Amino acid sequence: MTKFRAKLTLILILLIGCSMLVAGIFMAKVLESSHVNSLQENMERELHVIASSGVWDYQGTDAELIKYYTAQAHRLKDATTERLTYVRADGKVLGDSDQLPEQMDNHLIRPEIAAAAKDGIGYTTRYSDTLKENMLYAAIPVKNDAKVTMGYLRISLSLAQVDKSIRSLWYFLISGLAILFVIAGIVSYRIAKGITRPIERMTKVAQQITNLNYESRVPAYRNDEVGQLGQAINRMSESLQGQMARIQENERRLQGVMENMMSGIMMIDREERIMLLNPSAEAILGFSSQELLGKKYNEAKQQYDFTKMIQECIELQEPISDEMMFYYPAERILDIHLSPIAHEDEEWSGVLIVLHDITAVRRLERMRSEFVANVSHELKTPIAAVKGFAETLLAGALNDKETAVSFLQIIFDESERLNRLIGDILELSKIESKRIPMNFSPVYLPEFVDRSLSVLRKEAEKKHIELSMTVEDDMYIEADEDRLRQIIINLLSNGIAYTQDGGKVRLRVEPLETNADGDYERLRIIVSDTGMGIPKKDLPRIFERFYRVDKARSRSSGGTGLGLSIVKHLVEMHKGTIRVESEVGVGTKFIIELPVIH
Ligand code: ADP
Q1: 495 within ligand 1 shell (Cβ under 6 A)
Q2: Residue 523 in contact with residue 594, Cβ under 8 Å?
Q3: Which atom of ligand 1 is closest in space to residue 587's alpha carbon?
Q4: Is 122 in the pocket of ligand 1 (CB under 6 A)?
């Protein structure tokens, strides 16, 4: 039972009980006084009967009078069972049914006698010392024919009977009250329960709503105010449930966006604490959420200028953007946007920080400008040569035929180189921009390798270089045939170019990773030579554009410095890998691994 119900029950019991108690007391009083009233009326009637049926003018000495009236009192008492006293007009008791008149004092000052003398009738209730109990007295004057008071007649009645009936009335009342109290208790409890039970249910539902259980509902009650309150609570929790579902849905969406976006998001609240960090921000800053969330931004061990920038944004309350170099966890360039978050009513509620890792963009930009610089440089050299020799020829060298021919040969060679260079640059930019689609088809390798080799045979023979190939019969690969040829010819011509007279250049194709059926899934193409080799320090860079180990020699061999980077791109377009092994003075080996099926 709840406190409220107990209280309500108690109040109801008290209300019902008290009103019944007051009613009982009032009733008892009314009953008592009406009882006494009717007794008094009876006594008055009796007194008049006695007065009219007796002789009250008896003459004689006092002793004779006493004897006479006492005898009369005794006789009358036998008839009425009530004590009877006869008092003379001067107050002397002449006769009494219960006591000796000689022993009784003057009765004129007795209240009932005095009242009788004055009003014609007198009553008193008083404790009688003689009889040791409460007595009701009634007295009237006895008058002769001339209306002169001769004396007073008094009867008295024990109130024991009256007291007894009042007491039994009280007993009855009290036991009735006790029963009524019990009934009132039960009724009050039921009433209280009727009132409080729906309220208790509603309280429970409200508590469950507080505990995020929005499915809880108040059972349908009657249609009164309490029922309406219940319905209102139900409607409220329904609307809360709907709103909550919407909020959760929105939160999920927002969470999804935050978790999957490339930009790093960080939020700082009014207390300058970090309160949000998405996975990208964790990766960019190199700190986990656990390490940063809840920390003050200036205690979060962040780079000094970054912390400073946040502080500036908080102070100025204006958006700030800047690019910044970060050194932890790796060297990177970040594009940082800071903006104060302001709500309509509040001044500001925090700072939103958006981080972009623009290292790759910047590197690309740098590479592009470097590339342009490189290209211009590479183009300038042959153009300068062509221009220089042409000028010399114009200045008169044309007359010396032998010199003129050799100069023209140089001009031709340089323009050839220029042509090759431009061709390579165009090829590379085409490959890099991925404009040309791959054209995969099955390539029968023994025949394909043989034909590629024959293209270079003449050149090899010029340098007395032995060109050989090893490829198993019935080997196939799915590839873009033209590109695959470009790869092999590029590597073989490098081998020929960087190998001295009488050396060897070999090409070997071998299967890799055979599956359960004995079919190979990948194959390896190795182009090796017995040439000058590449120094260790240059190995990591030789696939870069325009990178040459020895500029002079490369130029004399007619190289552009773009061959290997084109090869690398083409291999990657076939989803393959390329690596190089080399030892100076011993030889170089390029190893390509390609998947057989695409
Ligand atoms: P190039 O047109 O100058 O040959 P590449 O991109 O093909 O340019 O090669 C880059 C550099 O790698 C060359 O300049 C050369 O120094 C070195 N190189 C390539 N292949 C070999 C090889 N087989 N032996 C020795 N050095 C080589």
Answers
A1: yes
A2: yes
A3: 24
A4: no
**Contact 494 CB / ligand 1 (< 6 Å):** yes
CA angle 556, 561, 563 (to 5 degrees): 110
**Separation between Cα atoms, residue 405 and residue 394, nearest integer Å:** 13
549 lines ligand 1 (CB under 6 A): yes
pLDDT in tens, the chain (598 residues): 577 778 888 888 888 778 878 887 888 788 878 888 888 899 899 899 888 887 788 888 888 989 999 998 898 888 888 889 999 988 899 999 888 888 888 988 889 999 998 998 999 988 877 678 888 899 999 988 888 888 999 998 888 877 787 788 788 878 887 888 788 888 888 888 887 888 888 888 888 888 888 888 888 767 788 888 888 888 888 998 899 999 999 999 999 999 999 999 999 999 999 999 999 999 999 999 999 999 999 998 888 999 999 999 999 999 999 999 999 888 999 999 999 998 777 778 899 999 999 999 999 999 889 888 988 988 898 899 999 999 999 998 888 889 999 999 999 999 998 999 999 999 888 888 877 788 999 999 999 999 999 999 999 999 999 999 999 888 899 999 999 999 999 999 999 999 999 999 999 999 987 777 777 889 999 999 999 999 999 999 999 988 888 877 766 767 788 999 999 999 999 999 999 999 999 999 999 999 998 8
* Residue carrying the six token digits 């009701």: 136
Q: Is 466 helix (H, G, I), strand (E, B) or coil?
A: strand
- Give the closest residue to 158 by CA, choosing from 139, 134, 138: 134
Under a CB-based contact definition with an 8 Å cutoff, are residues 427 and 419 in contact? no
CA of 581 to the centre of ligand 1 (A): 13
CA distance 161 to 42: 15
Is 529 close to ligand 1, i.e. is its CB under 6 Å away?
A: yes
Query: Would you say the CB of residue 382 lies under 6 angstroms from ligand 1?
Result: no
Instruction: Using most ligand atoms within 8 A of CB, pick from 548, 589, 590 the residue to mutate for ligand 1.
Output: 548
pTM, full prediction: 0.53
Q: C-alpha 16: how far from its chain's center?
A: 50
| Angle at CA of residue 260, ends 344 and 348, nearest 5° | 20
Token digits of residue 177: 């009250």
Phi, psi of 461 (to 5 degrees): -60, -35
- CA torsion, points 172, 175, 177, 180, in degrees to nearest 10? -120
Q: 493, 530, 534, 584: which to mutate for ligand 1, most atoms within 8 A of CB?
A: 534
Cβ pair 506, 470 in contact under 8 A: yes
Is 542 touching ligand 1 by the criterion CB < 6 Å? yes
559 lines ligand 1 (CB under 6 A): yes
Query: Does the Cβ of 550 fall within 6 Å of ligand 1?
Result: yes
Phi-psi region of 216 (alpha: psi -120 to 50; beta: other; left: phi over 0): beta
Helices 160-210 and 225-260: crossing angle in degrees, nearest 10, is 20
